[in-house]
Amino acid sequence: MEATSYGPRWKILMAFAVIYFVWGSTYFAIRVGVAEVPPLLFAAMRFLIAGVALFAWMLAHGEHGLEVRQWLAVTFLALLIFVGDYGLLFWAEQRVPSGVAAVMMATIPAFMALAEILVLRTQRFTAGLLLALAVGIAGVAVLVSRSLNLGGAPVDRAGAAALIIGSINWSIASVLSRKLPLPSSKALSSGAQMLAGGVLLALVAAARGEWRGFHPTAVSAEAWWALLYLIVAGSIVGFTAYVWLIHHESPTRVGTYAYVNPVVAVVIGYFLGGEPLGVRTLLGTAFVLVSVVMITTGQARKPDAQMAMEEAD
User: Fold this and answer.
1) What one-character-per-residue DSSP string does 38-92 give?
2) Residue 138 and residue 263: Cα distance in Å, rounded?
3) What is the per-residue pLDDT across 101-133, written as a single tens digit (0 to 9) for each?
């Protein structure tokens, strides 16, 4: 749909603002929450509540429930995305600044390109892609290296490893989602995945003992507001804006959120959270974002080169 009238153009601008700035700000909200609530339990709360709300809303508006094979596919993706990606992200933000976490997660397009080559075989290695991957790896190396004299402490290696593994899991899930029997309704599929992911996260949190000793009354209002923001703005509003944009703009333009979100997260972390913003962070961020731009613009003419899952938060 072409945005020729004021209404649609206004909606497009607002939707872009949501996926740029709201999604970029969720990293700081996660940091606020995991400072007081065990990380996997906090993630379980976010996605379980958001999933129930979105799934129930879609059923109330005429969507049919999922078939058994669809629930199996949804649960498998939820294991990769919500436990294997978001669970690691929430855990890592106890050890890594929120802005840096966003930068590390911006490596997703690189891993998606590799997954499309190795799994779907819809792309081939090119000199440009190899260069882009090398630039992205250099950015991560700058952030975690202890030998480079760039000032500031290097990123915690365990936290950085968790974020990279999470990015790989997201990329694999993103590629496999094109092959699995998911519901045709993207909103229903997303709600089901968040619901399944919330349940799985709650089970893993219980296995880790995160429920023991947790007292909701001891959690500050700030952390509860952060959770509410993640549920409403990050998951429900953000997802709705993303899906609407996918149907009104090219995937390439919508995918630009992948290199806007880290910038927003770094700025918010610096001004609101007092996170360091030295040469190391700036240089590492620059390398990673250049890599993302190189990869996404190189895929611009490929119709299947959508940068992120339509089941994203």
Assistant:
1) -HHHHHHHHHHHHHHHHHHHHHHTTPPPPPHHHHHHHHHHHIIIIIIIIHHHHHH
2) 18
3) 999 999 888 888 888 888 777 777 888 888 998
Q: Taking phi first (over 0 means left), then psi (-120 to 50 degrees means alpha), and beta for anything else, what does residue 241 get? A: alpha
Which residues are CB-contacts of 254 (< 8 A; sequence separation ≥ 6)?
19, 242, 245, 246, 307
For residue 139, what are its two tokens? 């950015």
If phi > 0 it is left, if psi is from -120 to 50 it is alpha, else beta; for residue 215 that is: beta
In 104-220, where do the E strands start and end? none
Taking CA atoms, 14 is separated from 3, 29, 91, 207, in Å, by: 13, 21, 31, 41
At 174, is the secondary structure helix, strand, or coil? helix
Q: How many residues does the chain have?
A: 313
In the chain, what is the straight-line distance between the N-terminal and C-terminal CA atoms, in Å? 24
What is the reported pTM? 0.88
Q: What's the pLDDT tens digit per position in 175-194? A: 888 889 999 888 899 899 99
User: Taking the C-alpha atoms of 227, 233, 238 and 241 in order, what is their torsion angle to the nearest 10 degrees?
Assistant: 160
Distance CA 288, CA 165 (A): 16
Cα 223 from Cα 219, distance rounded (Å): 7
Class of residue 303 by CB neighbours under 10 A (exposed 0-12, middle 13-18, buried 19+): exposed
How far is residue 243's CA from residue 195's CA, in Å, rounded to a whole number? 18
Cα–Cα distances in angstroms (integers) from residue 293 to residues 117, 135, 173, 258, 290, in the given order? 18, 11, 22, 9, 5
